[in-house]
Amino acid sequence: MSDKREIDDVTGVETTGHAWDGIKELNKPLPKWWLMTFYASIVWAIGYMIVYPAWPTLNGYTKGVWGYSQRAAVSNEVQGAKAAQATFRTALEKTPLAEVKNDPDLLRFAMVGGAAAFATNCAPCHGRGAQGFAGYPNLNDDDWLWGGTLPEIETTILYGIRSGDKQSRISDMPKYGVDGILQTSEIDDAAEFVLSLTKRATDTAAVGRGAKIFADQCASCHGAEGKGNPELGAPNLTDDIWLFGGRKADIVQSIFTGRGGSMPAWHGRLDAVTLKSLGIYVHSLGGGK
Ligand code: HEC
Ligand code: HEC
């Protein structure tokens, strides 16, 4: 060791004066910028530990002077979203059904809520995409048994169809076969006439006999031309859209039993806002009468 400054012969760099077994240590200090950054990060780390939660303790952790917690931050956000939702819910509750479409934000809120409620409550019968199944109407087309305006759809959803509710939509097609109102051959003729409404009849004589039966027995509900009547939930028989199937055997079965499909009432089971949202959602599916 010596105090004297010494330049290393090989590299031309000053040495620190330290030498071990003839090996000398070159004096190459860390760059200033690096050191400053290093010290700054130490200061920052200490500051961080004071301000934010940092160290585990025996029964928890140091909270930091700002008391920050991610859990609290998330629950604040959830609180905020709930408040916004409450605002929309109140607005939807107050807005008459027909006027919801005038407020785009409210309409979107109702559509999203309606779609969710539909998936939970209605999809088991009407299908996920509201496409329906035999006996369960497709709600996407603009063909309605009980009417496709907003108030008509609302009434259907609130009180159901043959649901047993006091205000339920009720209309019973007679069980022509079961109750012996028509002979089997007459039912067959009537079915042949119904087929003729969609140009599928094969037996003209039967169509002629069936036309008379239809005028006597069926026109009061299905209309003289078979175009149906939404006041009575009587389907249009001319549009080739069938609730219970359009093959002759299906039609014979419909006339024989009168069918009598039933849809539950939803008022009392779902809250007012959900019911309104459902009405708006279903109305939007059908092309909007
Ligand atoms: C248990 C099965 C079932 C469930 C659940 C159900 N429906 Fe229905 N829905 C039916 C049946 C069956 C009909 C047809 C009844 C008939 O034959 O007239 C129907 C008819 C309807 C109609 C009338 C369609 C038209 O053409 O006029 C609407 C609207 C409707 N449902 C909406 C809904 C909504 C909205 C929900 C959920 C809140 C729902 N349904 C849940 C069985 C169901
Ligand atoms: C009191 C009113 C009424 C009378 C009378 C009536 N119907 Fe109906 N008809 C209905 C209703 C309501 C439905 C729907 C039943 C349901 O949704 O469960 C229906 C359904 C049908 C269907 C099934 C349609 C489909 O889309 O699957 C056929 C077919 C039909 N009727 C034919 C007839 C014929 C033929 C007669 C006469 C012999 C007749 N109806 C008399 C009310 C009536």
Would you kindly provide a written description of the structure presented here, covering whatever features stand out?
The model has no long low-confidence stretch (mean pLDDT 93). This protein starts with 14 loop residues before the first strand and ends with a helix. It has nine helices and four strands, in the order ββαββαααααααα. A hairpin with a 2-residue loop joins β1 (15-20) and β2. It has a domain at 173-257: Cytochrome Bc1 Complex, Chain D, domain 2 (Orthogonal Bundle), CATH 1.10.760.10. It is mainly alpha-helical and 289 residues long. 46% of the residues lie in helices and 5% in strands. The chain has helices at residues 32-51, 70-94, 104-121, 123-126, 150-159, 184-197, 204-222, 248-257, 272-285; strands at 15-20, 23-26, 56-57, 60-61. One heme C (HEC) is lined by residues 121-122, 124-126, 135-137, 139, 144-146, 153, 156-157, 161, 233, 261-264, 266, 278, 282.
